[in-house]
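Researcher: I need the complex structure. Ligand is zinc ion. Inputs:
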Amino acid sequence: MSMNKNLSRYRRDVVPFMMEEIDERCPDAGSLEYILLSAHQNRELFEQFEQHFLVCDACQKRIRLMELFYRILDQEIRQPVSPVVVEMAQKLTEPQRA
Ligand SMILES: [Zn+2]
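Model: Output:
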């Protein structure tokens, strides 16, 4: 009759994710990001998630998508400034040609 204890405790906005819950279900997006970004400081939490990750297709897919997202973001950040802006700057600084 009583609700699953973990389910009733579950709140999407609670970060960090409760460690004992990782085994049972996928962390939400915010917790997943927290686990990955704090992996160096929070080794135990990360390893807990790692155990889940190894057997969870959904989380493996999520991480792949996140990797892809960050790769695209990284490329965007590395992109030189828009060619239009560069051209405009060059026109402003170049000595005027007749
Ligand atoms: Zn999962």
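Model: Summary of the prediction. The chain has one domain: 5-93.
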